[in-house]
Write a structure and sequence with these properties.
9 helices
């Protein structure tokens, strides 16, 4: 048995460890009511967190604006993660409003359809680069923007999928891209850990999000998950949100650098007989 380090206070116990009252942060990637970002926002709001929610384009506004009430009426911010100034502006809003950040959730992925639907062997350099920039390097840019606002520590979260660990035919180009995101998570966790910043990735099972709709055979993935996962069902965005809340709060204070599966156990059964 080891003593609690003198430079880190003992965390609260029981239900208090799951409270997010007073926590402030940014949730990116809201597109509609099927978005993982929406499930995260609802879960965090229910536990007392306050946050800014970003969405990618004005075309999304008819779908995201009606969701405000369910998320506790957060501040909205239009943010193009490919644009350095736009991304910096998102974090500047947090700085001006709170002077700090406790968490950032990265729930963003993109690949051009012509590359996503084809073989990895045939992926264009431009398509691969764009998918990597939006889906992976933008998480690095967010970490860089968040670091000076997390002088008291904090949590960074990204979303991945089991297709990063094992070949999933329908996942194609996003497999190596998400594998890079998972590796990035481990390196960021190592680099930022001494500052008390924890970095984790959540790996949900198939969820019918807008990003997933771009997959050529999403229904095949969903049917396989329902048939093979030990729980025999798909997971919900709210279940992903609850996991995000755990990782952000004191209950997850010693957890960093991990890939956390929220898929009903599907990753253990994938491709089995």
């Amino acid at each position: 048995m080891t003593d609690t380090p003198t430079n880190h206070p003992s965390p609260p116990l029981g239900l208090k460890a799951f409270s997010l009252a007073g926590r402030v942060g940014i949730i990116t990637g809201l597109a509609n009511d099927n978005s993982i970002a929406f499930g995260c926002a609802r879960a965090l709001h229910a536990l007392g967190a306050t946050f800014i929610v970003s969405y990618a384009s004005e075309k999304s506004e008819p779908f995201v604006m009606p969701l405000a009430e369910a998320m506790g009426r957060p501040e909205y911010c239009l943010c193009d993660v490919e644009d350095e100034a736009s991304l910096a502006g998102l974090f500047d809003r947090a700085r001006r409003r709170w002077g700090r950040l406790d968490f950032v959730i990265h729930s963003i992925a993109f690949a051009p359809l012509e590359d996503l639907h084809g073989r990895v062997t045939d992926a264009s350099a431009a398509g691969f680069g764009l998918a990597m920039d939006v889906s992976c390097h933008s998480f690095i840019r967010m970490a860089r923007n968040a670091e000076p606002l997390m002088d008291r520590g904090g949590a960074l979260l990204a979303m991945t999928y089991h297709g990063a660990d094992q070949v999933v035919g329908e996942y194609n180009l996003m497999g190596p891209v998400k594998a890079a995101l998972q590796s990035t998570t481990r390196y960021l966790a190592s680099e930022l850990g001494p500052s008390g910043i924890r970095v984790n990735t959540i790996s949900p099972g198939p969820i019918r999000t807008r990003a997933a709709s771009g997959l050529k055979d999403f229904d095949t993935l969903a049917a396989d998950a329902t048939a093979r996962a030990p729980l025999r069902r798909l997971v919900t965005i709210e279940e992903v949100g609850n996991t995000a809340a755990w990782l952000i709060g004191d209950a997850g204070a010693a957890v960093t650098g991990g890939i956390h599966y929220v898929d009903g156990g599907h990753h253990n059964e994938f491709g089995g007989g």
